[in-house]
Each structure stands twice: as C-alpha cells, then as structure tokens.
Amino acid sequence: MNTIDISQNIQNFKQVFENENRIIFSARFGDGKSYFLNEFMKNYDEKKNDYYFITLHPVNYVVEENRDVIEYIKRDILFQLIKDNRIYDFKEGYDKIFDAVCNKESLLKLGDFVASIIPIEGLKDGYEALKGLASTIHKKYKGQDVLHVVDDYLNGFYGNMGSISECDAFTCLIQKSLEQMMAKSVLIIEDLDRIDPGHLFRIMNVLSSQVDNPYYLEVPHGNKFGFDKIILVMDYEIARHLFHHFYGKEANYEGYMNKFLNTLPYSYSIKEEAHRQVRQKNLDICKTEEVFSLDQKLSSDPKDRISFQLALDNSSVRRCKEFLDLDINSLFRKKWLNGEYSIPTDSSWVRILICYRFFMPDKSIRSIMEAMIHGFTDLQLAELAMPFYCAVNGETFFYLRIKDDMYMIKYNAMLNLVTKGIVGNRRNVVPESIANIKKVLYNVESSICNLLIG
Questions:
Q1: Cα 326 to Cα 316: distance, rounded to the nearest angstrom
Q2: So what's the pLDDT on residue 46?
Q3: Dmax over Cα atoms in the chain, in whole Å?
C-alpha cells in the first residue's frame, strides 16, 4: 500500500455528494485535497456517464486588474467542454449564440486568443478543438455580417463585467451544453482559500446570487452556469479569516456561507485520518486503551516528556503510514533471550513499549519504561504488570485496593490472558502494594529490553 487508505472517507463524502447540490469541501493546505477528490471521481465510471466533472484551479490564474475572474472561470469551462467533446452541437440553431459569436473578425482568432491564455498542458489538443469549432461556425455563417462578437467578448475581458446577472452568449453556450448532457455535471473549483480574497468572494457571490432567487427561476439548477452540482474546495477557517479581513470583523461569515450551503462544510484531513488509523491499530495491537493515556514528564522541560498523544500529533503522514505497514510481531523475540521466564514474551506491556518506541525514537527504551512505570494509574499498571508478577513470584493472582474497592487481578499463562474483578468478600484478603508491583517491573526491565529487535 503506497498511501493511507481513505476508502471509508470517500464513501462518507459520496453520501454527502449524492444528496447535496452545493458543497464546500474543507481541508488545510497540504492535507491531500486534490488526491482525495481524484480518488473520489474514480468511483464514477466514465463509461456509465453518471457524472461529468470539470475541475478548475484559479490559483494558477494571473488575473489582470481590469479583468473579471469569472471570465477566466468561464473560459476554462468552455475549454474543458470543447476538449472533452461535450460542447453543445448548435448546428440545429441557437440564435442567441450565433448572433454573439458570428461577428466582426474571423472566428479563428477567437481560437487563437483562448488558446493563448489556456494552461500549457493540453495546449495543442485544445487549440485544434477551438479552431475546428470556430471553423465550423464560420463556414455555416460565412454569408452573415461577422462584425462584433470577438471585439465584444475580448472587450469584456478588458472592461468591467459588473453585473452578477450577466449571461452572455458564452454563458448560454455553457448552460445549453450542460443541459443537453445525459450525465449530471459537476463543477469543482480548487484552492479557493489561496487566491486573492476579492476573487474568492467574487466567485462566491456569482455562484450564490441566483440560489433561491425568484427572478432566476429559469436558470438551470440555480447557479450561473447550470451545473447540477458545485464543489468549492478551501480551508473553511482560513476563508473565515479572509472574509473578516475583506468585509470587516462584524460581518456575518456563517450567514454569508449559508447563502451557498445547504449543509455544513465537509471537513477532511489526511493527517487526522492517518492518526485515527494509527490509534485504531494501536488499540488492536495492545488490546488496551491505556496506550493512549500516558503523559509523563521526564524533567522540568515541558517538551521532555513521554506522551503518546503528543508524539502522534507531531508525526507526519509518512511516519503514520510506516507504522500502519509495520508488522509489530517482527519487533520482539518469541523466546526470552536467556530463557529466564516461562511466560509468553507477547504481552501488552511489550507491545505498548514497541509502539511508544516507534513514535518516540529520540527517547531511550529505559526512559520510556520509567515513564510507563510511573505514568499509568495503579489499576492500569497492575493489569499490565501481572504476567511479569506471575513470572517472578510464581503467583497467578493478587489483590489490589483502589480507593474503596478491592480488585482481584488474575493471569492465565496458557491463554496469556489478564482479567480483573471487584471482590465482594474481603475477609482474609491481603492486598499487594503498588510499590512491590513496580519493583517487579524494575527487576525484569533488562530482560524486557533484550526482547526488542532493532
């Protein structure tokens, strides 16, 4: 496995996706947004034609001051539709579009212009597709007066488009193309928290302006371009800071976002998912939640401590992945090095020690052992130490008083199983001291260290 398993996360998002038309996918920078969405889209077979995805990256735009970012969005949507051969076939007639696009100069110049500003990747195919489209229109309408469209459209880039209700011929072409599709159309706009705040909120304003607006009931799916679904990708909290910086501290961010959203943002973090899987594997390995509770200072320096949670928080996704791929059984011996004990070497104490050692490689084994002896609660320590108590003292059980309760801790060497229970009848019961239990662990410390491999 080369990556963290995110199949369950994808299924969770798929459920949200299929029930919502407008989604904010929230994740921090570097938290695997693009990888997640690419893997998510693979769930929908292109041959089945259930969904058609267009993904835009406005962070790559270099928007000139007097141009509208929406025109760049429109340009890239058109480019993708043409590249994927999904542009509306308007040979049957679409007067408004032809009135707009068949004017002034050769339509081949429109292909030259758009091709000059599209991303380099796929340039040749896109350029040829645009020229082919323009040539088809030009031949069919070569007898018409072609005087104004290219100038009108190019001047629109240099002029102030202004109105959120603008719906020029190219917007209509996009809407018509999407409307004619059998597949449901999905627009994904990535990295919105990394673009200029003015452009971010311009995009948000345009995409949400026609939502639930009675004056735009004819607009397909209540958004400017007529997509069935829109996914905006950003860090929701970073966008909050940008919003208050742009509109002021008193502005209502949640109210603003609720104009676009029907539900809460979908939050995702590859690091949090990696940490969740690490915690689950630790639980499976150690068979006890005690592994998560240890937090023991080693000195007056607050950073000098044995804490699994702190170590995990500081662990990279790569380190987590290494742990998830690790066979824990390969890291300890199956027999005591000097044959000193008859109990199995496989114990929760040894497994916890190995897990701590993996995530705290800067700490010595003995310092980790010391923290474990003094960091767990008395009852936790008694359970974890019981196999070694049995090996050293030859006893299969002992009693331990915890506040007002008396516990019996038992060990079955054949099953390698520790159990505990509260004792009802305390007559003739002599509890063991926690000091003696710690003494046992100190006595076996060297033998336990010799079990570890690597």
A1: 16
A2: 80
A3: 112
Question: pLDDT class for 155, splitting at 50, 70, 90?
Answer: very low
Place of tokens 């011929």: 169
Q: Are 256 and 214 in contact (CB under 8 A)?
A: no
Residues linked to residue 405 through DSSP beta bridges, in sequence order? 402
Q: Which residues contact 237 (CB under 8 A, 6 or more apart)?
A: 26
pLDDT > 50? residue 308: yes
Residue 317 CB partners (closer than 8 Å, separation 6+): 4, 32, 270, 271, 274
**Which amino acid is located at 313 in the chain?**
D
The tokens of 18 are what?
Answer: 């299929």
pLDDT at residue 130, rounded to an integer:
57
| Tokens 């199983």 found at | 417
C-alpha closest to that of 22 among 329, 264, 350, 197: 264
How crowded is residue 68: how many other Cβ atoms within 10 Å of its Cβ? 20
Q: Looking at this protein, which amino acid is placed at residue 343?
A: I
Report field, pTM of the whole predicted structure over 0.70 = yes
And the tokens for 229? 């679904």
In this structure, is the dihedral angle defined by the CA atoms of residues 82, 87, 90 and 96, taken in order, positive or negative?
A: negative
pLDDT score recorded for residue 187: 96
Helix orientation angle between 7-19 and 33-41, rounded to the nearest 10 degrees: 70
Structural tokens at position 127: 């350029």
What are the phi and psi torsion angles at 295 (to 5°)? -155, 90
Is the confidence at residue 217, as pLDDT, over 60?
Answer: no
Placement of tokens 């702190």 in the chain: 310
Given strand 417-422, what is the order of strands in its sheet? 397-402, 405-412, 417-422
Phi and psi at residue 115, to the nearest 5°: -65, -30
Listed residue (271, 261, 200) closest to 28, CA to CA: 271
Distance CA 76, CA 296 (A): 55
Please list, residue by residue across 105-115, b when 16 or more beta carbons sit within 10 angstroms of its beta carbon and e when fewer do.
Answer: eebeebbebbb
Are 286 and 351 a contacting pair, CB within 8 Å?
A: yes
Question: Rounded distance, CA 105 to CA 147, Å?
Answer: 6
